[in-house]
Each structure stands twice: as structure tokens, then as C-alpha cells.
């Protein structure tokens, strides 16, 4: 099993969710986060005063899938979330040692 962690722009969430559902992803966790990368934030003017916004709003997706499906999920997220502009996000893929469904006690592949 693989854990895929992806950060994307907030307005791309619904499009990415639909694309992942279309390839058979049955569940994911979504978190609103803030962060920065090479864009290093930006400045804004509020009530006449300029201030630095050091963290940019992002969405973090966490998806656990069978190892055989991981490449397809990464490719789908990459194609769907891409705008071609700075700040499109990152994707990380990690190994999952164990999974347990709390309600039923099912483990590993049966739990996802």
C-alpha cells in the first residue's frame, strides 16, 4: 500500500476529486493548510497598509491506495491540478506498513 500526500491549489480540489473518483479512488482525507515554496509568499494591501503574506493557502490530500494504483493516482493528480504557474503543489509517495478499519477490524488492503 502507498500513502500519497499531495498539496494543490484550493480551486482545483473539486476537479481533482472528480478525476480520482473516476479512476476508482474510494476515499481521501482533505485538509486546508498554509505553506510556501519557491514563491515565498507575497505582499497585500489592507486598509492602506502593505503587509507580507508569508504563507499561501493550499489543500492537502492524503490518499491510501494499493501499490499497483499509486502511479496512476500520481499521474491523475499531476494532470488535473496543473495550471502551469508557480505554486501548483507537490506530491509525495510513502509506503504504508499497516492499515486498520476501526469499525470492522479489517486490515491492510481490505481496510482501504
Automatic annotation (TrEMBL):
Keyword Protease included in the entry's annotation: no
SMART domains, per the entry: P-II (SM00938)
Annotated GO CC locations: cytosol
Keywords assigned: Nitrogen fixation, Nucleotide-binding, Phosphoprotein, Transcription, Transcription regulation
Modified residues (O-UMP-tyrosine): 51
GO biological process: regulation of nitrogen utilization
GO molecular function: ATP binding; enzyme regulator activity
Function recorded in the entry: P-II indirectly controls the transcription of the glutamine synthetase gene (glnA). P-II prevents NR-II-catalyzed conversion of NR-I to NR-I-phosphate, the transcriptional activator of glnA. When P-II is uridylylated to P-II-UMP, these events are reversed. When the ratio of Gln to 2-ketoglutarate decreases, P-II is uridylylated to P-II-UMP, which causes the deadenylation of glutamine synthetase, so activating the enzyme.
Protein name: Nitrogen regulatory protein P-II
Organism listed in the record: Salipiger bermudensis (strain DSM 26914 / JCM 13377 / KCTC 12554 / HTCC2601) (Pelagibaca bermudensis)
